[in-house]
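The authors assume throughout that readers already know how a fold can be written as discrete tokens. For illustration, here is how one protein appears when written out as sequence plus structure tokens:
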Amino acid sequence: MIKKLYELGLRSEHAYTAAVVSVGLSFLSWAGSMKGESAGVDRADRWGIFVGEWAPTFFGLGLALKQEELER
């Protein structure tokens, strides 16, 4: 899968950028849910955590792509 993503033009920098952006989106989704919904802190926390879980995935993908880049 990593080899195919590399062949399609995805590089480690793209994955790292997506990880950093997802951290920011996690905060924004939490803050937006706090202000925009009347469901309270619990739902806002769930939104923040849901989006926040993307960051480690993107960082892991970035590491795998970096390894692929070094092998070439």
